Amino acid sequence: MIFFTIVLILILLVPSKISRATNNFILKISQPLTSGMVRAGRSIAGTLSIFAEISNLREENHRLAEDSIRAKVDSATLDECQQENINLKEALEYKNAHPEMKLLLAEIIGLDPTNFYDSLILNKGSEDGVSEGMAVIYLGVLVGKTDQVTPDTSQVILITSKDSIVQVMLESSRTTGILRGGISGMTLENIPLDTPIAESENIITSGLGGKLPKGIFVGNAGGEVSAKSDIFKTIEVKSPINFSKLENLFIIIGI
Questions:
Q1: pLDDT in tens, 73-123
Q2: 103 strand-pairing partners
Q3: DSSP of 148-170, one letter per residue?
């Protein structure tokens, strides 16, 4: 067996007509197999290449998705910063325009979970000079007054709340009355029947009772809602404030 193997190797390696014939014969019979293996190899390589491209595309799509999310977050953050700057600029301009009042800027950090139009929580408290009954305003318009005060927070009862009662007066006639909140809106009560009320007349705080300074703008007079049998006149009061969009407020801690 070893002898025949050696002879076969010599025939293939030693140049001769026999070896060349043998080589040609071997190449001829192996060509279909070799060609098949080459085609199979190319097919496998092509398939692997496709898989690699798919994997690369998935990675690229994932990266693009992450970049898109980051871009949206950055854009939202920038927009929020710009809006905060606008709000703070308005507040600072108002504060600078009213040096006669000691104003404390506060941020809303909580809302009444049962009814937004009843109360809210500010991030300033007794350690900042806040006490119960102080006026809370937005750009000069009355929002409410402080109620429960902790060292670092204050609850504010809004003038729209059913629990709110504020002493106010009609700016033109100087007639005083009671401002009440409620589900149906704010009303000005206890106005004598013979009191003339101009259309959209300004309503301001009267300064009577409590810590609310006199002259804070509350809203404008609306239509009369009192019944014919009432001994006092009751009118609607419209505030220019959108209470659902408040973010930063001033607490009047001194005059």
A1: 666 666 656 666 777 787 788 888 888 889 999 999 998 766 656 899 999
A2: 252
A3: EE-SS-EEEEETTSTT-EEEEEE
Count CB-CB contacts under 10 A for residue 67. Answer: 10
Phi and psi based region of residue 201 (left: phi greater than 0; alpha: psi -120 to 50; beta: remaining):
beta
Separation between Cα atoms, residue 204 and residue 206, nearest integer Å: 6
pLDDT tens by residue, 177-236: 999 998 889 999 999 999 999 989 999 999 987 889 999 999 999 999 888 788 999 999
**Ordered alpha helix ranges (H), the chain:** 2-13, 17-97
Q: Would you kindly state where each structural domain of the chain is located, as residue ranges?
A: 1-97, 102-254
Write the DSSP string, 102-142. EEEEEEEEEE-SS-TTTEEEES--GGGT--TT-EEEETTEE
What CATH number labels 102-254? 2.40.10.340
SS3 content of the chain, % helix, strand, coil (to 5): 40, 30, 30
Count of positions (residues) in the chain: 255
| Location of structure tokens 């040609």 | 24
- Which of the residue ranges 71-75, 117-121, 141-145, 163-167 would you say has the lowest mean pLDDT? 71-75
Locus of tokens 């059913």: 162
Hey, is 80 helix, strand or coil?
A: helix
User: What gap in Å lies between CA 202 and CA 182, rounded to an integer?
Assistant: 20
